[in-house]
Amino acid sequence: xxxxxxxxKAFGGREVLGGVDLTVERGSVVSxxxxxxxxxxxxxxxLTTLLAPDAGTVRIGGFDVVRQVPDVRRIIGVTGQQTGxxxxxxxxxxxxxxxxxxxxGTAAARRRASDLLERxxxxxxxxxxxxxxxxxxxxxLDLAISMITAPPVLFLDEPTTGLDPRSRAGVxxxxxxxxxxxxxxxxxxxxxxxxxxxxxxxxxxxxxxxxAEGTPASLKQxxxxxxxxxxxxxxxxxxxxxxxxxxxHTGEGLVLSVPVDGARDVREVLERLDRAxxxxxxxxxxxxxxxxxxxxxxGSPTIGAAR
Length: 307
Known about the structure:
Number of strands: 14
Strand order of the largest sheet: 6-7-8-3-9-10
Keywords: Antibiotic resistance, ATP-binding, Cell membrane, Membrane, Nucleotide-binding, Translocase, Transport
Structural class: alpha/beta
GO molecular function: ATP binding; ATP hydrolysis activity
CATH topology of the largest domain: Rossmann fold
Order of helices and strands: EEEHEEHEHHHEHEHEEHEHEEHEH
Largest sheet: 6 strands, mixed
CATH class of the largest domain: Alpha Beta
Strand content: 25-35%
Radius of gyration: 24 Å
CATH superfamily of the largest domain: P-loop containing nucleotide triphosphate hydrolases
Number of domains: 2
CATH architecture of the largest domain: 3-Layer(aba) Sandwich
Subcellular location: Cell membrane
Number of helices: 11
Domain ABC transporter: 2-232
Shape: elongated
Family: Belongs to the ABC transporter superfamily. Drug exporter-1 (DrugE1) (TC 3.A.1.105) family.
C-alpha cells in the first residue's frame, strides 16, 4: 500500500534523507523509529504530499505522491503531533466542519460525524466544547477527524505524545479498532513500547537511511538472547555461583546475569546452583526490548522528535 524507493531530500546542502526504502503492506502497521535528526518527520511529510522529494519514488495506493497529489490526498488521513481541532467548537461541530471541508454534503457530513462519534466512543462528549476535553478525548477526536473520508491509509505522527498512560492506552485501543477495519497505518512514535504494542513491522531510520527493518520479535533477536538475572543471599553463595556459572556476567551487588534460551536453560541453571548449594534470594527473566534494539542500531538511548 506504501512503496518508497531511493527517497532523497536535502536542506541547504545538508542531506537529510540519503536513499530511504520502505514498504508497508495493505492492512498492516509499520512503525518508523529514529533518533533526533534521522529524517523520520521529513519522510512522513513527503509521503503525505506536504514536501517534494529531491529524488526517488513514493507510491501510496498505487498513486505517485509527486505526479498524482490529488489522488493521494483522497486516500490518506493524517494525525499530526499537534491536534488539528478547533477547541471552541464541540466535537460534533468539528467533525461536521471537516466533512464539509472535504466536500461532503451537509446531510452526509452530519451522518459521518455521528458515525465517527460512536465509533470512537465520543458520543457523550459530542456536545461539549473541545476545550473541556481531556488530552485523551481530544486525541481520539483528532483520530476521528483523520477518518472523516474513511481513508484506507492513515499516517499517525506521534499520536500519543504528552498523554498520560491511561489516555495512551485508550488511543492504542482506538488504533487497533481501525486496523480491524483493514486500514493501513504508518506510525511514528516517541514511545518504543508503543511500536512494540501496535506495529507488525518496525523500520529504524538513522542518518537518513533505513538501517534495520523487521518484526519487533525479529529485531529483538538480533540484539541477543534472554537473560536470567540472579540475586544471591550471601557473598559466599555469590562466589560459588560465579564459579559454577562461568559464563555469567557480574551485575551490581550480588547479582549474576546468565544468557539463556528458553525454559530448559533456566531449569538447568537453577538445578546447577541447587546442587552447588548457592542460595538464590531473587531472580528475574529479562528479554531484549526495542530500547535495546534502538541503542544497538543507532547508539542513541532515546528517540525524541526527529526531523
